[in-house]
Amino acid sequence: MIEIENITKTYRMGAVEVQALRGVSLTIERGEVVSIMGPSGSGKSTLMNILGCLDQSTSGRYVLDGVAVDSMNDDQLAEVRNRKIGFVFQSFNLLRRLTARRNVELPMLYAGIETGRRQRAAAALESVGLGDRMDHRPTELSGGQQQRVAIARALINAPPILLADEPTGNLDSRSGEEIMQLLLKLNRDQGITLIFVTHDPKIAAHTHRIIHVSDGLVAEATA
Amino acid sequence: MNLTQGILSALEGVTSNKLRSSLTMLGIVIGVAAVISLVSIGRGAQASVTSQIEANGTNLIYVRPGSTQQSGVASAAGSAGTLTQADADSLLGVAGVAAVAPELEGRGQVSYLGSNVNTRAIGVTPEYLLVRNMTLADGEFISEANVNARSSVVVLGSGVAEDLFGGTAGAVGQKVRINSQPYTVIGVLESKGSTSLGSVDDQVLVPITTAQARLLGGGRYRGANVLSSINVQAENSDSIDSTIEQITLVLRERHDTYEGADDFTVSNQQDLLATITEVTNTLTLFLGGIAAISLLVGGIGIMNIMLVSVTERTREIGIRKAIGARRRDILFQFLVESAVLSLVGGAIGNLVGWLISLAMGQVQFGNTSIQPTVDADAVMLAVGFSLAVGLFFGIYPAMRAANLAPVEALRYE
Questions:
Q1: In which band, very low, low, confident or very high, does the pLDDT at B378 lie, cut at 50, 70 and 90?
Q2: What's the pLDDT at B153?
Q3: Contact A54/B326, CB-based, under 8 Å?
Q4: Of the candidates B297, B246, B301, the residue with the CA atom closest to the CA atom of residue B268
Q5: H or E stretch covering B16
Q6: What is the pTM of this model?
Q7: Which has the least CB within 10 A, A161, B39, B304, B340?
Q8: Chain B, nearest residue to A93 by Cα
Q9: Does A78 contact B328 at a Cβ distance shorter than 8 Å?
Q10: Which chain A residue lies closest to B409 (C-alpha atoms)?
């Protein structure tokens, strides 16, 4: 469960201060499927970075699974990202030098898991339908396959939350739809909280709730 | 992330751009190879000089004319003809002196049939053989009778015999000419190898009286024949310092000089050895220091490449951070990468340096060859230093990588 309360974020660009978020409060329950929508420059990406613990707010409270995240240092945040949040990016963000399996193993490496990494990575790749592509490098895979690898990587440490930033943005409509179905199935089967950041209404249509962000504020939350 | 994983992933990083990694390593390879080979050559030179000096016998005391200081002006030892036969005779009675071998040195053109050699000609007494720790390969040495009769006889150094007769055998009994005067070869010396101070194989020995009267002349000083130096053998090496003291006092009395104004110099092998060791140590250190500079430059090369690598892999760092890498994980990854570069470079450099040393051992410098010695401490020093260089110059790029903000790094194209 995610609770944020009166979050602000101010960037300093030279002498000018830019307020990207101006007091955002929202709650996302466990197992929910929500989408965050808004035009570019609305503060949507900033909100996602803060929700994903990639960045910290200037002020306000953020409680993730009952733990205050806003007062954590960099290494503690890294641990939260490692164990609690899986990321799926628009541009996949796989390491090009590594095979699909090695990419999926990485979060376990940083979690300090010493044994069984290969088997677990292999099982995760099977579950996203890539059992026969484990030793391929990202350049040898199609966009949809790369996004599946990224999903396998996001799920490998069994996080309760999955944060997807335009997950179908670089895919054709058919593989985009497949990826959406795969993600929604994870929510149905494992109860993973899904947060989509998108401006694609087709994605938003799949979600239980849409959070509209505009001008650094949450404008409305429609069910 | 544990050490093995870190090293594996660093190796992946290093091998992903082989050309760049090998060029980076080349800097370290050259640096380490230079340190190893130069230091080993320096050590080899020292060992060969030392062994040759020791081959002359450690009980040897040299008395040479001239002193370090004359009327405030330094003059090179050996430049003034102030030592005489009478001085040599007077040393026989000094406590601790076992034998005295005066010598008069000059140059001689030695010819036999068509061949001729320009070499060092030394007038000596029978004691010379013993005092200078030499042995005969063939024939016999200059006798007391030869000295008394000013005989025209000569003992050839093995190098001279080699040049004129093609070997040590067959020379004895032959007639050679030295500066156009006829001499009979009565003996050939065993080879002692060359020294950096001049080869003892490259010389001919005649009776000292013959040298004074006919071959080299040498002049007279205070009514006695001048000598170029006096070799003294001490009874034992433990009391050599007090023997030197005694000799100095006797000569000071005879020459009517005082400390600081002596017209002679008394020294022994140990002094010479100490001086040479000091010189070669300085030289070795100097060479090693120059080589170390190239190692430093190699280290800067590592830093350069690691900085480029951090910039290039900004996005990778962002991805790694997003999926849970902590600061120390990233720091460790890049530090291990630069350590791998420097260690592998160091290992190859050791091998190359060792090969260079081996090759140098095969080369003859004039008639001196140096056997370079690759010591474990030089190897450890070079490897340790290259690792230190890798870590030192790797720490800044690694810190830059570790301190990247994940959001910024992910946004980097």
A1: confident
A2: 94
A3: no
A4: B246
A5: none
A6: 0.71
A7: B304
A8: B319
A9: no
A10: A54
Residue B78 and residue B64: Cα distance in Å, rounded? 6
- B315 touching A (Cβ < 8 Å): yes
Contact A75 B327 (CB under 8 A): yes
Tell me what percent of the residues of chain B surpass a pLDDT of 90.
25
Domain boundaries, chain B: 3-53+274-411, 99-232
- B32 contacts: CB under 8 Å, gap ≥ 6: B295, B345, B346, B348, B349, B350, B352, B353, B382, B383, B385, B386
Spatial distance between the Cα atoms of B36 and A176, rounded to a whole number of angstroms: 61
SS3 content of chain B, % helix, strand, coil (to 5): 55, 20, 25
Domain count, chain A: 1
Q: What is the CATH number of the domain that holds A80?
A: 3.40.50.300
Residue B57 — very low, low, confident or very high, per pLDDT cuts 50/70/90?
low
Cα–Cα distance measured from residue B158 to residue B167, given in angstroms and rounded to the nearest whole number = 7
What is the nearest CA distance from B366 to chain A, expressed in angstroms?
56
Q: Which of A57, A93, A163 to mutate to test binding with chain B, by most B CBs within 10 Å of its CB?
A: A93
Q: What is the pLDDT of residue B367?
A: 54
Whats the size of chain A, residue-wise? 223
| Alpha helices (H) in B150-268, listed in sequence order | 158-165, 208-210, 240-255
- For tokens 């994605």, name the residue: A203
Residues of A with Cβ-Cβ distance to B325 under 8 angstroms: 78, 110
User: Is the Cβ–Cβ distance between B330 and B1 less than 8 Å?
Assistant: no
Rounded distance between C-alpha atoms, residue A103 and residue A115, angstroms: 16
Q: Cβ separation of A78 and B5 shorter than 8 Å?
A: no
Tens digits of residue pLDDT in A120-170: 999 999 999 999 999 999 999 999 999 999 999 999 999 999 999 999 989
Q: A50 contacts in B (CB within 8 Å)?
A: none
Structural domain that includes position A88: 2-222
- Residues A74-105: pLDDT tens digits? 999 999 999 999 999 999 999 988 999 999 99
All residues at 6 or more sequence positions from A193 whose CB lies less than 8 Å from its CB, including other chains: A2, A28, A29, A30, A31, A32, A33, A160, A161, A162, A187
Asked whether A213 and A20 are in contact (CB, 8 A), the reply is no
**Å between B395 CA and nearest CA of chain A:** 19
Measure in Å the smallest separation between the Cα of A217 and chain B Cα atoms: 21
Token representation of residue B15? 């091998």
Nearest CA of chain B to the CA of A93: how many Å?
6
